[in-house]
Design brief:
Cytochrome Bc1 Complex, Chain A, domain 1; 6-stranded mixed beta sheet; 11 strands; 5-stranded mixed beta sheet; alpha+beta; single chain; 498 residues; 17% strand
């Protein structure tokens, strides 16, 4: 009976996976592209089934493109990109501009004084008071959240953005007859940005850091874990950046960063929905051609040396224990990266995965177990991360022992053909689910364009995964899942510390 149920489920997975592959072939036939004279590429997924358009602007600029002193600036710019332009978000821009320029000058004077060998505390206090007064003056000119208000009044949904180690992405959807409104607003916020509410927004981000890192045990753990897992590479710094950087970054820093990183050749824009290539190209040339061509960001040339041994960081907190284990893996460009996707489904993804079944179902020693490759990014060599939370009465040592045991099993004997096929089919079904929406599909297309060199490669993992053998999984475990390539992060409860 169990065998019959397995075969039925297996067939359902296989049929769904086959349908997904056929659907991807149809999707590719609806995709076109064009590049403006300034180097800005547009990727269009036509879908005339409903009068809706989805938009994604992908900036090839994330935390890994920052440097010491301005860590966190990508995220700051993401917030400020919603503050409007010289025409949007202001009651009187000429008057507002004078106040904003004086605010920037005063802040520079504060930083210059703080850099003195013997800073004048009284002068800093006086300048700080002037900055506060100017901030009040500037607020009188602001039309709060007008950028978003205009979009929402015109039917926008899903207005948002995100910053990662590898990129910054802006996205939302609008009715199809609002194409030109989108083109005007989206181009203007990168060619005519006004960094209003700069200091207020920095305060918001610093509070995010307090809530997500400094007052959150898991946030503290990840920050310290990254600092030992990476030695020299920018992946060693959390995307939100250190508090000392956030406090010091100036408006001038943000403008310089925007000018360098938001050039036409460093952006890719995706549009999906009810529009033809000719219609899109017409508005693109009208509004986006004014973005300076600039240069595409060079790849980070810093390469971490081999660890040469296991690294561990432990923090003690008034919280439940946590365990994270990271193994060094190659970037998404390496063929081995796709094999880690299959490994996820063998080890942790789904009820039937090895670690999930053993830790959460059989032993009930963990509340959950998860894993993924590409932490904190996949543009460069990064980590295959496993993370778990012990159940009551169990501890990190117990879970760590089980994780290492299951990894050793992978090295000693190949997984069965049935287990491998199940993992592949679950991957395909999950991929199909993630790409069912136009918005989700655009994210994948643009990511492939930047990280892999072409949007067409967004579908390559499906073919690559199909070729992976049981022997490949065994080789993968033997090559990468070894102690000398491992970093471990642990939270131990304070009351258990002797």
């Amino acid at each position: 009976m169990r065998k019959k149920i397995f075969l039925t489920v297996f067939c359902l997975f296989a049929l769904t996976a086959a349908a997904a592959e056929a659907d991807f072939s149809r999707i590719q036939s609806r995709i076109s592209e064009f590049t403006l004279g300034n180097g800005l590429k547009f990727i269009l997924l036509e879908d005339h089934s409903v009068p809706i358009l989805s938009f994604v602007t992908y900036a090839n600029a994330g935390a890994s493109d920052e440097r010491i002193g301005i860590y966190g600036i990508s995220h700051i710019l993401e917030h400020l990109a919603f503050k409007g332009t010289s025409e949007i978000g202001t009651r009187d821009f000429p008057a507002e501009k004078k106040v904003l320029e004086r605010m920037a000058a005063v802040y520079d004077l504060i930083l210059a004084e703080k850099d003195q060998l013997r800073p004048d505390a009284a002068r800093i206090e006086k300048l700080q008071k002037e900055l506060e007064d100017l901030n009040k003056q500037a607020s009188a000119f602001i039309v709060e959240n007008e950028f978003g208000t205009i979009l929402k009044a015109n039917g926008a949904v899903g207005l948002n953005a995100s910053t990662s180690a590898d990129a910054t992405v802006y996205y939302y959807s609008l009715p199809a007859n609002k194409l030109e409104l989108w083109a005007y607003l989206e181009s203007s916020r990168f060619t005519d940005p006004v960094l209003r509410e700069f200091y207020k927004e920095k305060d918001v981000i610093m509070e995010e850091r307090r809530m997500g890192v400094e007052n959150q045990p898991v946030g503290k753990l990840i920050e310290q874990f990254l600092s030992v897992a990476f030695i020299n590479h920018p992946y060693r710094v959390e995307t939100i950046g250190p508090m000392s950087n956030l406090e010091r970054i100036s408006e001038r820093d943000v403008r310089d960063y925007l000018r360098r990183n938001y050039s036409a050749r460093n952006l890719v824009i995706g549009v999906a929905g009810d529009v033809t290539p000719a219609e899109l190209k017409k508005v693109a040339e009208k509004y986006f051609q004014k973005i300076p061509a600039g240069l595409k960001n060079p790849r980070v040339f810093t390469v971490d040396p081999d660890h040469g041994g296991e690294k561990t960081v432990t923090i003690h907190e008034d919280s439940q224990p946590w365990l994270v284990v990271g193994y060094g893996v190659p970037s998404v460009l390496d063929p081995d990266f796709d094999a880690f996707t299959v490994l996820n489904y063998i080890l942790t993804a789904g009820r039937s995965s090895r670690l999930n079944k053993r830790l959460t179902i059989t032993d009930k020693s963990a509340l959950f177990i998860g894993s993924f490759a590409g932490f904190p990014g996949s543009k460069y060599p990064s980590l295959y991360l496993l993370y778990t939370l012990p159940n009551g009465g169990h501890d990190n040592n117990e879970l760590q022992k089980v994780i290492f045991e299951e990894i050793e099993k992978l090295k000693k004997e190949p997984v069965s053909e049935e287990e491998l096929r199940s993992a592949k089919n679950r991957f395909k079904v999950q991929t199909f689910q993630e790409l069912k929406s136009n918005q989700g599909l655009l994210h994948q297309l643009l990511s492939a364009e930047v990280l892999l060199g072409s949007w067409r490669k967004a579908f390559d993992p499906l073919a690559a995964v199909e070729k992976i053998t049981t022997g490949d999984i065994q080789k993968l475990a033997r090559k990468y899942l070894v102690p000398q390539n491992r970093s471990i992060g642990r939270i131990e409860t304070k009351t258990e510390v002797q």
